Amino acid sequence: MSLLKNYGKRFPINFVSGKGATLFDDEEKDYIDFGSGIGVSSIGYGNETLTKTISDQASKLIHTSNLYHIQPQIDLAEKLSKLAGFELFSFFANSGAEANESAIKLARKYGKGERFEIITLTDSFHGRTLGSLSATGQTALQKDFLPMVEGFKYADSLSDIENLINSKTVAVMLELVKGEGGVEALSKNEVQKLAKTLKEKDILLIIDEVQTGIYRTGKFLASNIYEIQPDIITLAKGLAGGVPIGVMMTKLENGFSAGDHGSTFGGNFLSTSSAITVLEILENIDLDLKIAYFESKLMYLLQKFPNIFSEITGLGLMRGLVVKPEINVLEIVQNGNSAGILTLKSGKNTLRFLPPLIIANEEIDRGFSRLEKILCNT
Length: 378
Ligand SMILES: *Cc1c(COP(=O)(O)O)cnc(C)c1O
What we know:
By secondary structure, the chain is of the alpha/beta class. It has helices at 36-39, 48-60, 71-84, 96-110, 130-135, 139-142, 158-164, 188-200, 222-225, 269-283, 287-304, 329-339, 361-376, and strands at residues 15-19, 22-25, 30-33, 89-93, 117-121, 152-155, 169-174, 204-208, 232-235, 246-250, 309-315, 318-323, 341-342, 344-346, 350-353. The mean pLDDT is 97.
């Protein structure tokens, strides 16, 4: 194969199609998807409305560049601000890492060269580009690519952040639920307290909602659940149902001046019209019932397998089951793949669940019953 080896050994499955939250391989075997292609396929597979948007838009225009007006980009920005519940101005990119790069640049601009330090959390994940990797608090991911971009500090906990603040601090960047770092949700009280402190000190609060955003945790933004209005929010994964997109939204209308930043592909006709359709679909789902149902199934597994699991973590449909240290999570994921139930690993020992938000109760039933079967043999 003429591919680089950065993804290691892939699971030996060839998917060819999907419907709802179910995927089919080249032998017509079906798989219940509790992973959404790592939080991306928020409206599942084979959605006819999105297919129509993509095909209609492709037949008109896919791309023109940001030299010209792009109507769906304007409409999407307005919709995002409205759904967030407070005024935000958007810059469109193509991925989570790029959205975070924009956030880092905006923060540096705000610091006017005098303040440039950004504090993030240990075990956070903000992306793989040099800037976003420097923000990522995981030395294991950074070690072969040193030196990192200057100006990042890592706090072990929320309460540790205040100790790291100095006259050079311009921003704090956080995931409200750590996606790659074990699906842990931060404490709402502590986050609100920190937001207040940062405001007093004129330090920007950047919330990386690349994974938590777009209804994943139950509301449009996890920030809505935490009842905070961050200065900057980044989104990507679930926003356009699999069409690549990223966005950095900020309260700072004049945060960038002309020429400060840009993207060739970012916010093109195809990705922004897809995102509008995805949001229209998700706005009309009764998520609370779905979340309660999914939660009850997790609770059942926790109670039935106290020898395997110790705790349920996360929020909404971004959940983790913490696995006891003597159990190998990856083995559960692999056995699940063979049994037709797709899950993810997060952190060292958490089994992660990111089902499509449109998953049917019947698919939830089938997924959990397959999982239960393999857990009986673990
Ligand atoms: C996935 C992820 C990213 C990186 O997104 P890419 O699209 O892979 O660049 C950044 N932050 C968080 C919280 C993520 O989950």
